[in-house]
Amino acid sequence: MVNSIRLGLPSNTANPLKASSSFKTNKRGSGGKISVKRGSLPIRLPSRRVSGGAIRRESDGDSVATTDTRGSFAMGASERFSKRVSGELDADLAKNFQASWRDSAVGNFQMNTLNFSGLVLHGRDAEVKDLLDTLKSLGGEDNAPNINNKLRITEKGRITECSTEKGVKEPPSAAPAIVTDEDAPAPPKARQQQQCKLISILGSTGVGKSSTARKLEAPTARAGGFFVAGKFNCQHQVPYSAFTHAFVELCNIIRNIEEDWRKEIIANIDEAVGKTNLRLLAEVIPDITKILNIDEEESKKVDVGTTDAAAGSPEKKNQLNYLVIKFIRAVCSPEHPLVLLLDDLQWADEASLDLLEAVARDTENSSLLVVTTCSTMATEKEDGCCGYLKMTNELEELNGLEKKIVLGNLHPEANTAKMKALTDILYSKTLGNAFFVIEVMRTLVNDELLKFNFGSMKWQWEDDEVSKISITGNVADLLAEKLGRMPPGEQLVLQVAACLGQSFTEAAFEFVMPKAMESEFNKPSEKNEESSTQDTTKKEESSTKDTAKNEKGSTQDTLKKFCEEGILKYENGSLFGDPSMKYSFAHNQIQDAALVSISKQVLPKLSLLLGSQLLLFGEENDELDEIVFVALDLCSKGSEFIEDLEKKVKLAGYAAFAGNKALRQGAFMSAANYMEVGLSYLGEECWANHKEMTLDLSSGLAEAYYTVGKFDEMEKHVNQILEQQGGAGEKNRAYRTLILSLGAQERFGEAIDTGLKALKGLKVIKKLSKKAGLLSALNELRKTQSLLKKNTVPLEYLPELTDKNRIYAMEIVYMMTTMMYIVNPNLFLIMYAKVVRWNIKYGVCQYSPHSFATYGVVKCGVLGDVKGGYELGEEALSLSERLGARQTESKTIFAFYAFIYHWSKYLRDAEQPLLFGYQVGLENGDVEAAFFDLGHLMMNGLIAGSVKLDTLSERMKDSSQKMKYYKQNAIRSFIVCLWQVALNLSGQSVDPFVLTGEAMNEKDMFDTIEKTKNAMLKPFLYSLKMQLLFILGDYKKALHCAKKSADYGVKISQGEPLVPRHTFFSGLTFIANGEIGRGKKVLKKMKSWVTKGNINCLHQVQLLVAELASVNGKNEVAKKSFEDAAKSAKVGSFDNDRALTHERAALHFLKSDDDTYWAAYHINLSIEAYESWSATAKVRQLVEKHQDILSKHGYNWK
After folding, report:
1. What is the largest CA-CA distance in the chain?
2. How far apart are CA 1018 and CA 1010, in angstroms?
3. Distance, CA of 268 to CA of 927 (rounded, Å)
4. Minimal CA–CA distance to 15: which of 566, 475, 585?
5. DSSP conformation letters of 834-861
6. CA pair distance 145, 473, nearest whole angstrom
7. Fewer CB within 10 Å, N side or C side of the chain?
8. Which residues, at least 6 apart from 572, have a Cβ–Cβ distance to it below 8 Å?
9. Cβ contacts of 383-387, under 8 Å, gap ≥ 24
10. Do the Cβ atoms of 1056 and 898 come closer than 8 Å?
11. What's the gap between Cα 598 and its chain centre?
12. Which residues does 1033 contact at the CB level (< 8 Å), separation at least 6?
């Protein structure tokens, strides 16, 4: 019996299954334009294609003014600040896209409810609805600019105009309107969190993950947004390959959008990224220079004063990640969101996963949707998949994963009796795998078991004949069997393409293909030889000879044929024959099948041949940077067949090139792999025969192993370098890596010994021990003070240092700063005293501003010269501007605004500069400095009382999460203590007297401090505990904590803004516990600070005077001093201390005056101030304690 069923078909489709996945081109006259059909999607193609997603935008006439915000500090740090810390933004995101969708006409063939018609996927209704809902929640304009009436959409590089509304003029093509999705649901309410959204789509290979994700393409276009996609490669793990592909596509879109919009985006990118960072950003986004119209050579200029050692550091990786984030922020907006599809994460390299996590954690961009797909079949055998799943699970715990969609196979359901038999047959042979179903149906069509009757416009088949067809157990074998039927010439084309990777350019393919045709590999594979008949063999030999003729035309025709058959697809380029034309496999399993068809004996040799040819192609066409990873991967697969020593050395040079490129990109595991391969090519006598190249490879390999935490392997290569004969300059890179790795392992003493050894090798110091004492430190400080007095040249006019050894020496001291401060503060003083003298004698470099600022901290905190320290700090900032010392700028800002500024200026005014320092640190990859800036910003907010506690708690929570992600545990330990104090005071803890809650557990923290012997954190925590207990009125326990934290600000942490506050509360605690003598000593010290210009201590001194006067019965002096302290606190915006002053005044009047009027008056003012600070726990305590007095005088607090 012949069964038949009708399907809706394009009128010009000859073979529906074939046409549904192919391009047809028809000449449309002169002008170089043709009409292209892909399924039922009409497209208008200009003579030159662009790549990308939706690019239409109506101009609203508004202009965006941009200014250079990097002026001098004399003009104010706020002018240079561009982005605020996450959590401070409060943008309204309740906007919708106002796009409309409608269903396309489809046929009735169903398997479950999943249909395939052309390129349109149907049936994943719930999953697609999730995607669309998420898209619409990104935002959009309240009055969208006619996006329903006119749409310019780029479909794989082809631009068209069309309409989906009645009464609107149709596009110039006679083809039907664009197929769109279902009607959009109502827009959701505004999101409070300013975070990008990540959707993870999981499922086995062939279930339709990519097709489901691409259902967002047309809706994104209609919303005025960008849709771009990239795919990771199963054959070659090229760092950032999917990101690069997607961003190149995005750059192509930007180059072809309307001029006003393009200029706006370019201005945003220029402001966010800056021209100085283009060289690094181009490692991931190579086309960034094209959209900014910057000469490629100009973008490759290296900053003056930078050292080669910084090329492959973790800082560079952090910097690159942050630059990519800023680029994305600059491109997208609520009106024009960006949807980024990253396909096949199971094959992603480690660097790409790290970048993806950084992008997903961006809390300052609500206009980005990242959709990822990952095959669950690879979970156990692919590291990329395991890393990806681990990352998404962590994000899910932090509410950073928007949705996780798991796609399964289809189920055998049919809506007609005629379909049931065919449905059951297909299910029995495929188990419902979507891709397998399609390939089986294509097989049925090719074998003429499933035919289309144009007379009845119906599909026809015989159930019995279909059931008899022999189908292999999986789709890979089915595809391999189909490929085996191809002529050997076509097989070779597909095999070569598969070796090149998931995608490849026509130019590279045509370069390598002739050699492949001439080689011994142009023969049928072993598999095919075993299964082929004698007639088939003759036919193959004949075909091989024909293929060898007219190679260029033949390969182009074959590639075109594969595209028409849905085996390959076009990605970009102009018409056929354009060298920039790029092809990719239509599905991973097709590429896999092509690779499987190559015999195991042939594959290594063919790979070596293709890799060698690719390297030659890269050299001749100046494209080595783009293809070196793929080429070397291919060569390594056939390395056992390389016998020529000269060729091995040349490959080692390519490996060094690739390894250093991977280091610059922050792809450290990839770098290590290439460096190891390079050393293997050089052999065991590499140091004797090829010292320079071996040094380069070994240094890079040590850096790579350090950054991924493989310290044993790192030390092995560093030791080999240090054992070699040669000057100190050759070993600088190794010394740097060793010092940093020892520091990362908290082996600070060994790190300092290594640093001192390196300095002696550079001949900048003679004798110096890490156990240097106070006398040596004072002697060095005396020498430096003397030289500074004699120096008449302003620091910013000092000549630039050209001696590379001195620059390396300053870098070593810079790296050891924190370690020296922890191990031996005297050594810290000695080294910075020396470095300041070096700068004055020999000149300045990028490390000089930080050294001068650090010495300014010493002048303020150790020598007591507040004015001199402030002046030196300001000169350091000016010098940093002059030198463009971006690498050390964040730490220079930190030294000045965290340790110097508060001695002379109001604490509140350091907020914006510290925020700027945080941003600069992230931009330059110096996350340690960035989070030092951010940590002290949080500390200042608590000390100054200028930020409400509930707001401050949220900021600290966000900061703590970021510090945890960036592994900045040292500063995070301090932040969680501050955070818990804020939670206690704001009433967000069970017991306000105990520092236990969301941020930390007090007992666990003290236990950890004892185990780690953290000499800085212990007094810091006791100091915070003392302040909390005093505010809450437990003076005896506060005294205990004051004694435990007596060393704070004396032996450690000199110059921090918490030091004056610690001293202030110590004085209050001593007085409250009757230790008047100690209280007077504190007052004397604080008066000296005020005399030297510390305006932040003025109200504190006045309050201490009032407390002592109250104890001594001097009521008038006390009253006047309480009033002065309250006024000074108000002027300085110290709401916390103003509240405390009024509370202490109330207690004074309760003790000294029978009339409770003034006591009630001050209690009321104290409650108001505490409430404005959102200190809910303290407000509750005061109201409960003084309810009677307040009610008596008409103050109604509940």
Report:
1. 120
2. 8
3. 24
4. 566
5. HHHHHHHHH-B-TTHHHHHHHHHHHHHH
6. 53
7. C
8. 49, 50, 51, 156, 157, 249, 252, 580, 581, 582
9. 383/350, 384/232, 384/237, 384/345, 384/346, 384/347, 384/348, 384/349, 384/350, 384/353, 385/345, 385/346, 387/348, 387/350, 387/353
10. yes
11. 39
12. 1181
Residue where the block lists tokens 């082996």:
747
Per residue in 155-171, pLDDT (tens digit) is 333 333 333 333 333 33
Residue for token pair 């509410």: 399
Query: What is the H or E stretch that residue 503 is in?
Result: strand 503-505
Extract the tokens encoding 362: 């961006």
DSSP 303-324: PTT--GGGGGSHHHHHHHHHHH
**Is the separation of the CB atoms in 637 and 604 below 8 Å?**
yes
Q: Which two tokens stand for residue 1050?
A: 């004396």
Q: At a CB cut-off of 8 Å and minimum separation 6, what does 227 contact?
A: 52, 53, 54, 216, 217, 220, 221, 339, 341
Residue owning tokens 């942050």: 322
Q: In the block, which residue shows the tokens 């039907």? A: 176
855 CB burial (10 A radius; 0-12, 13-18, 19+): buried
Q: How far apart are the first and last CA of the chain?
A: 87
Instruction: Look at the chain and count its residues.
Output: 1198
For the record, the structure tokens of 311 come out as 């090329």
Residues in contact with 624: Cβ distance below 8 Å, sequence separation at least 6, in sequence order? 615, 618, 657
- Backbone phi and psi for residue 648, each to the nearest 5 degrees, phi listed first: -65, -40
Tell me the β-bridge partners of 685.
none
Q: Which of 645, 703, 647, 646 is nearest to 674 (CA)?
A: 703
Contact in structure between 942 and 952 (CB atoms under 8 Å): yes
Choose among 571, 568, 574: nearest CA to 582: 571
pLDDT in tens, 672-687: 999 999 999 999 899 9
Cα-based distances in Å from 452 to 10, 21, 107, 110, 455? 13, 17, 13, 17, 9
User: Which residue's structure tokens are 């006390």?
Assistant: 1118
Distance (Å, rounded) from C-alpha 228 to C-alpha 250?
A: 6
pLDDT 10s digits, 104-131: 223 333 333 323 334 445 457 888 888 9
